[in-house]
Each structure stands twice: as C-alpha cells, then as structure tokens.
Amino acid sequence: MKTAYQLVIGGVLGTIVGGGAFMAYDTFDRERKLEEAEARQHEERRKAHADSLLRIRAAQDEQERARESEERLCADVIHDLKMFYLDSVLVEKPLKQNVRFGLPGCSSQDLKLMRQRLQIFHDSGDWYRVKLVSAQGSLFRYVKVLVQGRDIVLDEVR
Predict the structure, then answer these.
(1) pTM for this structure?
(2) In degrees to the nearest 10, what's the CA dihedral of 104, 106, 107, 108?
(3) How many CB atoms are closer than 10 A to CB 90?
(4) HSE (CB half, 13 Å, CA atoms) of 83?
(5) Using CA atoms, how far apart are residues 116 and 90, in angstroms rounded to an integer?
(6) Which terminus of the chain has fewer Cβ atoms in its 10 Å neighbourhood, N or C?
(7) Is a pLDDT exceeding 70 seen at residue 140?
(8) Cα 67 to the chain's mean position, in Å?
(9) How far is Cα 99 from Cα 154, in angstroms, rounded to an integer?
(10) Rg of the chain over CA atoms, in angstroms?
(11) Helix, strand, coil content of the chain in percent (nearest 5)
C-alpha cells in the first residue's frame, strides 16, 4: 500500500508531467496555427499578385487591340482616299463638285504623273495629308475625314 507521501509525490509529479505535456501541446498547436495563418497570407498575397498581373495583361491586350483597330481604320481611310483621288479627282474631266480636290487646268501628262506618285499619309486626328507630285513640284492637300459607321465622309479640304 502506498503512503500519503507517495501519493502526494505521485500527484505532484503527475501534475508536472501533465502540465508540461499540456504546455508542449499548446505551444505546438499555436505554432501550427501561426504557420497555417502565414501560409494563408502568403497564398492570398500570391493570388493578389497573380490577379494584378492578369489585370495588367488584360489592359495591355486591350490597348493592343485598340491600336490595331486604329491602324486598320487608318489603312482603310487611306485606301478609300486614294481610290477617291484616282477615280474622281485625277481624271481628265473631274466631276464639278470634286474640282476643289484636284488641280484644275493640269495637262494630261501632269495628271498621269500625279496618279503614279499619289501618296496619302495620316497626319493627326481626323486629318490626312495627300501629296500630289507633278512636273511643277509637289502640292499637299489636307483632308479631314469623318468615319460614320462604315462610311467615310470627307469633311474639309485645305
């Protein structure tokens, strides 16, 4: 049979061992929870970074599409202006309403040379520069073009 002294010592030692085990488990559990919280924060930061990269890439793609669309529109306008000048202005007998675009009184040789060397450039905004080269030299016309739906309207000529 155990004495009261042994029982007290056993109780104290049990309490110490049990308390130590509880403290060790509690410390381990806190560390594990802290590591999990840090891992979640790291994952959230990584996801936020990836999302911001996706947003940046989407914005760059949108800018690229807008630039390509503007380049296509500019090429279409240049083509249509060139066809307008070749078909309506730089001809032997230009239409009366188109005389302001051409060069009244030019010889057929000058008109032929202008047709061969006709150049059209996008200047700025809605303005396009038409370069007409003849035997007398180069002339420039500035044409303001408005795009209305699928139609190209010549708004102003300088």
Answers:
(1) 0.66
(2) -70
(3) 23
(4) 7
(5) 10
(6) N
(7) yes
(8) 7
(9) 14
(10) 42
(11) 65, 20, 15
Residue pair 143/81 in contact by the 8 Å Cβ criterion: yes
Q: CA-based angle 9:14:20, to the nearest 5?
A: 130
Q: Measure the CA–CA gap between 81 and 154, rounded to whole angstroms.
A: 9
Q: What SS3 class is residue 35?
A: helix
Is it the case that residue 55 has pLDDT exceeding 60? yes
Please report the pLDDT score of residue 155 as a whole number.
Answer: 81
Residues forming a β-bridge with 21: none
Helix (H) or strand (E) run with residue 111 in it: helix 108-117
Bridge partners of 133, per DSSP, are 138
Distance CA 52, CA 73 (A): 31
The size of the chain, in residues, is 158
Q: Tell me how far apart the alpha carbons of residues 130 and 152 are, in angstroms, rounded to a whole number.
A: 16
Task: Give mean pLDDT, residues 15-32.
Answer: 90
